[in-house]
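Hey L., structure's done. Input below.
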Amino acid sequence: MRFSSPLVPGTLLLREKRFLAHVRLDDGRTVIAHTNNTGGMRGCSTPGSRVWLSPANNPKRKLKWTWELIEVGDSPASPTPVLAGINTLLPNKLAHEALLAGVIPDLTGYDRVRTEVKYGSERSRIDLLLERGESENTERCWVEVKNVTLVGPNGRGAFPDAVTERGRKHLRELAEQVTLGDRAVLLWIVQRSDIQSVEPADSIDPKYGKELRRGAALGVEIIAMQADVTTEGIELVRELPVRL
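Output:
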């Protein structure tokens, strides 16, 4: 995934009301950027951090900038600064692109990829539905995509970074698809290079960890893919260990 326009660097002044970021650009202007990330963004919203924004392509959009990247690290857990991708609209695109390119080993061999398909008794929309075969013989794999940027000691990434009832609902629906005879996958997209493995963030949302382990016991698969994040683009490059 390449950014359609060159990113513009600046310094984060304040993250406000989850969806707004006040940034001082390198040319001296202070702007307000939109952020698609509704999570806690722990470790990824420190004032004074270097950030990169993309200009909005839609001239009618109220906010003319979108927050894409932040430089993180310089701590005992991450002594070397790295870039982290915080735009949570991108993981679905990254996963779709990687599936079509055959980059995710456990998710190859499917004929079709559909997005935003309604499913489950709670009537959510799945991020990606993989299918092969026709009619009654169709094999389905339901894939829910989540963005990971939280990291703890020893490079252990974790999800979620805030309490998420919505995330728990998605896990229940994935488990339901398994009981119906389909395949279901939780795909963690890791948008920073200093993470070595991924696990549930039990200290933040213990109910999520419990639901995740329940789903795994029923057959929900959990895959973590790490991205190479640069100011030019983001690409999934390797699978990481998952710790439950």
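The longest strand covers residues 139-148. Residues 165-179 form the longest helix (15 residues).

-- N.
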